[in-house]
Amino acid sequence: MLGARQFLFFIAFCLVHLVSTDEHNHVYDDNEEVVLWMSTVGPYHNRQETYSYFSLPFCAGPKAMIGHYHETLSEALQGIELKFSGLEIDFRADVAKTEFCGLKALSDHHLKAFIYAVKNQYWYQMYIDNLPIWGVVGEPEDNNGEISYYIWTHKKFDIGYNGKQIVDVNLTSENKVKLTPNAHISFSYEVNWRKTNVKFEDRFDKYLDPNFFQHRIHWFSIFNSFMMVIFLVGLVSMILMRTLRKDYARYSKDEEMDDIERDLGDEYGWKQVHGDVFRPASHPILFSALIGCGYQVTLVVLSVIVFAILGELYTERGSMLSTAIFMYAATSPLNGYAGGGLYARMGGRVWIKQMILSAFMLPIMVCGTAFFINFIAMYYHASRAIPFGSMVAVTCICIFVILPLTLVGTILGRNLAGTPDAPCRVNAVPRPIPEKKWFMEPLVIILLGGILPFGSIFIEMYFIFTSFWAYKIYYVYGFMLLVFVILMIVTVCVTIVCTYFLLNAEDYRWQWTSFLAAASTAGYVYIYSFYYFFFKTKMYGLFQTAFYFGYMALFSLALGIMCGTVGYIGTNAFVRKIYSTVKID
Ligand SMILES: *[C@@H]1O[C@H](CO)[C@@H](O)[C@H](O)[C@H]1NC(C)=O
After folding, report:
1. pLDDT tens by residue, 542-554
2. I need a surface site. Which of 300, 489, 496, 540 has the fewest CB within 10 A?
3. Which atom of ligand 1 is least distant from the CA of 168?
């Protein structure tokens, strides 16, 4: 067992290093060049609205750039733009206060840009040896009603080292200069090296915020959800016992008794529809594509969480996204296998159409949203605008990796899992669906189905949203895994109960109902995201708003497909189980 964890860690490690090409090995000799990368600048409250650092009239230092920096694909997709600062920083060589560049006679245009940035609380991000550093552009000052704007011009870096490695960086902004027309502004920097005892492995700990991710609240919410799980599992086992008990009892009695019992009207509710429950779902192409996609999304989410637990992915820029893209491509065969197999079992013939829909459903939704956001980003000249090269790369991954792998999966699925295996024969003529009470209508069941699963995750949703939309690094992936498992169990139980009521009302359209009842969780998440936007954040502006609601919709869709599929898988097993004991004359 000792080896298993290390082996997994090794795989995760390889994966991270396979997909992100970092040119640093984090070891420096004395006086070796340390590169300060200027990343982005943007308003504090709009985390995703970022611009290239030099889009503001800042100036770079005199040092010429040697070498070349390659952004990884996921960095480009996340709008991380790195520009060399031009500052001379060498390992363990202190630099006294040095002026590195200046703006002579601030022009009107530049003055406006700086004042706008200070007014909107712009701050910028830099990197030294992968460690992020933040600083504010300036601050307003109120002198008896007259507001003047100041800009910080001196950057003081305190860099902590341990052996040959950089383990800590602090930035202090000093020397405010008032922004006035024709002002002369000169920028300076200073570097002090300090020996510290922080271990290299622990250098990201200071960015984590244990006070925010209160473990007490976490445990409390998990305890609550766990109680719900116990209750639901109890309910489902009760239903299973009730439906199956009579049949088991019947097997132990002799045949005569059985017939009498059946004549006496045992055939009610769910048993009545045995000739229709295994009728293929309507819109089989869409349905099987959704299920195939759901298998894939579930596996990707699960594996990314596990890799995040093992590999501390937050310490490398963009490695989370790289892992997700890699896993998505690698799990494409599963999508084809599950979707193609299901489609074949439902008697589908146009399998190529189904496969293409299956393979491209999620990529097209993602690219569509990104494309739309991209237009706005380009209009704003934001660094989020995805470069043309990255778009080509993503398209190539879709066509040359995802599609062939899905094809392989689909062919395997159709051949190995494509024969119909329903326990009951399907009648030639569909049974009419009787009138029923309003709360037994599929639509109502679908809407009610998502409430409990949503209840089990919404506290975790708050933490996840805050780490994405505000400045918290999410690191409690163990909790996330626990919540994920609880969500899956609750979803399966709730959909089984929903389906049981639906079938008892002699309505056999359970496939879509179970899928949508589980998927409606995502609808509640999307509604919650509106609440979060208006009451928990201070985002503003067209770009950030479009970005927020666009990507939240995408997140909810993926969550919906995932929950829907898990709900369907569980319900499918349940339905097979209860109908496998029904005897057909
Ligand atoms: C950075 O600031 C923190 C908190 O003020 C301090 O504990 C740490 O020693 C500083 N690091 C360096 C290298 O000065």
Report:
1. 999 999 999 999 9
2. 540
3. 13
